[in-house]
């Protein structure tokens, strides 16, 4: 059974509060970076993997996408999506990407926001995505940065001096890929660590051409709204990639 931490009652309660806060890492850093990689969406057929509460799927329709197929493993997330971001041209499905089936060459653009680090068999999923893309089409995704996922401890890897100021970020076990168990909002959150080279080479192996990579850095306005973003200048939280079939 694939882990579905987002339907854990306490996790979902805390995560919903986090995402609905006016300023958070998603809306100030990750989502602007993801949207900057998008092609012109006019008349495109889109698959959004790990659609969550549907904000991004709805954004695509607002920007003239023809249709969005949006999938997620969380009933709680999809209930909000279908209530707050319903649209005749968005179809929401309770489905993991590992179990989702579509004909080859079905989509003009496939997106995934912070969901692929939950995938155990990355190569199999990238192969499926490549098959579903039409020739010349775009795959855009974000993951937690491998610098962050490398650690094996549940604690934050920021180290602090005697005055309580962060002195540096410790990286360890980077090339020891695989399962990581985290405490994030609740205990027992399972993610998978992969090196940057593994991510890139897997895309290449499935005939996807890397067009752009981003490790987003917040601007001064974002830092003013959420001061903890200042640390992003020292250690990136996210890695984003745009690739073409």
TrEMBL record:
Q: Does the keyword Repeat apply?
A: no
* Keyword annotations of the record: Methyltransferase, S-adenosyl-L-methionine, Transferase
Q: Which residues form the Methyltransferase type domain?
A: 47-141
Q: Which InterPro entries match?
A: Methyltransf_11, SAM-dependent_MTases_sf
Q: Does the keyword Phosphoprotein apply?
A: no
- Which range is the signal sequence, renumbered to this chain? none
Q: Which GO terms describe its molecular function?
A: S-adenosylmethionine-dependent methyltransferase activity
Some GO term, biological process aspect, for this entry: which one? methylation
Q: Which domain of life is it from?
A: Bacteria
Q: What is this protein called?
A: Class I SAM-dependent methyltransferase
- Look up and give the organism this protein is from: Lysinibacillus sphaericus (Bacillus sphaericus)
């Amino acid at each position: 059974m694939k882990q579905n931490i987002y339907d854990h009652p306490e996790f979902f309660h805390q995560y919903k509060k986090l995402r609905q806060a006016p300023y958070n890492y998603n809306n100030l850093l990750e989502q602007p970076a993801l949207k900057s990689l998008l092609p012109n969406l006019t008349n495109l057929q889109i698959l959004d993997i790990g659609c969550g509460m549907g904000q991004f799927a709805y954004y695509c329709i607002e920007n003239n996408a023809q249709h969005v197929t949006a999938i997620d493993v969380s009933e709680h997330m999809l209930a909000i999506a279908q209530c707050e971001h319903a649209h005749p041209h968005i179809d929401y499905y309770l489905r993991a990407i590992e179990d989702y089936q579509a004909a080859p060459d079905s989509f003009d653009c496939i997106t995934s926001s912070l969901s692929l680090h939950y995938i155990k068999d990355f190569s199999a999923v990238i192969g499926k995505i490549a098959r579903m893309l039409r020739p010349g089409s775009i795959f855009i995704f974000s993951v937690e940065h491998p610098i962050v996922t490398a650690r094996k401890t549940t604690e934050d890897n920021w180290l602090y001096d005697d005055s309580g100021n962060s002195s540096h970020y410790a990286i360890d076990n980077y090339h020891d890929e695989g399962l990581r168990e985290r405490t994030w909002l609740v205990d027992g959150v399972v993610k998978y660590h992969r090196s940057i080279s593994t991510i890139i080479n897997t895309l290449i192996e499935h005939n996807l051409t890397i067009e752009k990579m981003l490790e987003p850095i917040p601007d001064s306005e974002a830092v003013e709204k959420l001061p903890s973003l200042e640390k992003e200048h020292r250690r990136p939280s996210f890695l984003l990639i745009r690739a073409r079939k």
